[in-house]
TrEMBL record:
It holds the Pfam family Pyr_redox_2. It comes from Sinosporangium album. Residues 10-331 form the NADH:flavin oxidoreductase/NADH oxidase N-terminal domain. Keywords: Flavoprotein, FMN, Iron, Iron-sulfur, Metal-binding, Oxidoreductase. SUPFAM superfamilies: FAD/NAD(P)-binding domain (SSF51905), FMN-linked oxidoreductases (SSF51395), Nucleotide-binding domain (SSF51971). Residues 376-639 form the FAD/NAD(P)-binding domain. Signal peptide: none annotated. It comes from the Bacteria. In the N-terminal section; belongs to the NADH:flavin oxidoreductase/NADH oxidase family. This is 2,4-dienoyl-CoA reductase (NADPH2). Its cofactor is [4Fe-4S] cluster; FMN. One of its GO terms (molecular function) is oxidoreductase activity.
Amino acid sequence: DLRHVFAGGRIGRLALPHRVIMGAMHLGLETRDDGGAALAAFYTERVRGGAGLMVTGGAAVSAVGVGGPTYGVLGEAGFHARLSRVVKEVHDAGGLIALQLFHAGRYAVPAGLRPVAPSAVYSRFSRCEPLALTEAQVRASVDEFARGAAHARELGFDAVEIMGSEGYLIDQFLSPKTNLRDDEWGGDAERRGRFGAEVTRAVREAVGPSFPIIVRFSGLDLMDGGTRPANVFSFTRALVAAGADALNVGIGWHESPVPSVQAIVPPGLWIPFAARLKAAAGGLPVIAGNRVDRVELAASILAGPSVDFVSMARPFLADAKLIDNTLRGRPVNICVACNQACIDRSLDHRDVSCMVNPRAGRELGTAPVRPVRSLRVAIIGGGPAGLQAARQAALLGHSVELYEALDGLGGQFRMACKVPGKSNYRDTIGYFTAELARLGVRVHLNRAIGENDLGLLRSYDRVIVASGVRPHTLSIPGAGLPNVFSYPEAFGDGVLKGRVVIIGGGGIAIDLAHLAGRGESPLNDHERFRREHGLEPGPVLVTANAEVTILQRGSRLAGRTGKSTRWAVLAELRRQGTRVLQGVTYRQITPDGVHITDAAGADRLIEAHVVVIAAGQVADKAVPALAERAGVRYQTAGGARDADGLDAVRAFAEGFAAAAGL
Ligand code: SF4
């Protein structure tokens, strides 16, 4: 029942077509020297896909507050020109857009400048100790927000959002952990809240009585010794009194020890923490978000009495037509909260995109254009690269057939969707399966391409080989024993029980350890997550069906997992009691376990009922070799191209690129 989403709503004088707001996302396009073309293309594509009000990525109110080199600074002519183009094109397309006023404080990464903050409290997120602002500088910072808001209004934005959550400057003033001042701006909860309230007041003065102001602040900072719930309530009231029109409730800081937007967080988990602020909101709309992954979930949240709008950000990267596709009952490409192509890239100051939708952030020049001649295209392999290639080739107007050796589509995603937190990878497979059907792609399952298929390959104008990888094998004595499994075998039912030793320390090894230690657990178990992370008292269910040891040659577990997720995944393993031995040499596998030389040089037996080899993968070059022999025009994508450093982001992107290069 989507009626609660499409009921329309208001923020101040602004009428919104529906109740999903596209939340702020830094894209990395903000400083691109293209006059704002790419940025405008990103937003207008979302308007055309049904987005209502969109909030831009953070626009820094001062150079010292930027989140990195790709952040725009208000007051700079070039940035204003880009924003102006964005506003015009969004309005021409019939959309609404709010500018987010941003100052990262001690999280800032300003080139050649030392970040500033209420107090000189070291940040382990930005790895620096900021300079404490003087009283005069605090006042100047308030003025910077006001000036930024005035610019937003002059540039034609429909609203502003004051960014005060996620541990940025306003949050740093609010929290006793980062505000150690004892002056007008700190010392007790009221004075710590003063900065956020003064910013809101100054912004209101700068934009006049009727220009809509959203204030985003932390409803729950998830920091030990952070802002107490009672103080969040009084801060909420102060923001209302200072002139806010809507309250957007964020959850967690970048430094929080509790994950807030990672895949292991159950969707919808944080909504009650926003809803409870309704009582303090003085009748203003409350906006809730963080880990709302589909419009249907937004609808169920909006059916309740306390949340007026739902903010969704990453889902608009995964599917630019999120709203329209949902409304029309079409397949929706779901954000699986992997963070790999969005948050992790943003934290590395790289351009943002999306794992399941490589077109995100590259809208310019990648719109499907019908070719002069429609080609007959064969896609070999139905994993991420093949699925993406098939969809894209069909969108481009080619006649596409896909051959998959196994009995279902998805490739390595079929394994991944068993891993706790990754069950919605099934939705990605479902999306592509539905899209291929919609676009008329003929899918042949259980159809491996072999020696006898040279004629078949030659019957196509083009072939895209996305036949994937093979697991790396270990050449040590005992590797062929019946207690030894490859990682694809280990994902099968019932393998991971008893004493399990996993050889390898990469992403797949970690996924297996997680699966073995926890079992297939539903993604929607809110109570379990809250208990495990100390958000509510009560016993934690222990469902471990295996005792897991990871053996690694190197010394960095999950070394390629992104910054936003690695720490949370490792914390999960610690919680499960997974044992990790690093710097080891594997000598032999026997029915009793794995004989190793440990980091100290001692020979040991690590006892195991089950040994899993998850020590990497190699490109499967059999089909590319056949295509070569057939003399057909072909390209490779994903694992078939290069297994080194392969991840799903690269696989999807290469599938997309291969289709674009037909
Ligand atoms: Fe979601 Fe992953 Fe895409 Fe980011 S990269 S939008 S987390 S699916």
